[in-house]
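Practice problem 4.
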């Protein structure tokens, strides 16, 4: 690395003038580009790699999957159960049977257990993929003489798992708070 000269211009005009006196770079030699190749006859085949010249040596496009390894696709999709199709006994978890310290997420608090269950169905319709494998917990609670019903979800490995779940829902404007069973 060459040392800097003792007198380095500090004024912007001096810097611009010193750059204006700089010698231009030599022009680059023209680069020959290969002629375009014809498209492959069969669909799914990739074009062969260019052997010479600048650029990629091999196509970034993945090769077609061999027919012997191709998975069969059913022409009709597998029916998915509609929201609320599962029986409440399969979906609900009794809050009294959940051990202290278990991580849950709270999705809301409602005036009745029925409203809490219907909200679960609404949330399931919107975030069904997130709720897969989770159990619904409707817990009765009282605060300042008022009775309400907490809607919670069970099925998290730890606090970090519950926080990740809530961050996904909150990012999509849904209420969610990680909680711990007392």
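Answer key:
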């Amino acid at each position: 690395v060459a040392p800097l000269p003792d007198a380095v211009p500090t004024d912007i005009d001096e810097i611009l003038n010193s750059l204006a006196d700089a010698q231009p770079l030599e022009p680059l030699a023209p680069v020959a580009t290969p002629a375009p190749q014809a498209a492959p006859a069969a669909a799914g085949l990739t074009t062969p790699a260019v052997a010479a010249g600048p650029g990629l040596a091999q196509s970034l496009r993945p090769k077609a999957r061999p027919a012997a390894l191709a998975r069969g696709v059913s022409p009709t999709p597998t029916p998915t159960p509609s929201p609320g199709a599962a029986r409440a006994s399969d979906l609900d978890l009794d809050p009294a049977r959940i051990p202290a310290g278990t991580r849950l997420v709270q999705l809301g608090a409602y005036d009745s257990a029925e409203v809490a269950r219907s909200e679960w169905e609404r949330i399931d319709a919107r975030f069904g993929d997130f709720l897969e494998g989770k159990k619904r917990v409707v817990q009765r609670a009282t605060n300042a003489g008022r009775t309400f019903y907490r809607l919670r979800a069970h099925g998290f490995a730890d606090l970090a798992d519950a926080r990740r779940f809530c961050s996904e829902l909150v990012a999509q404007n849904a209420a969610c708070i990680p909680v711990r069973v007392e």
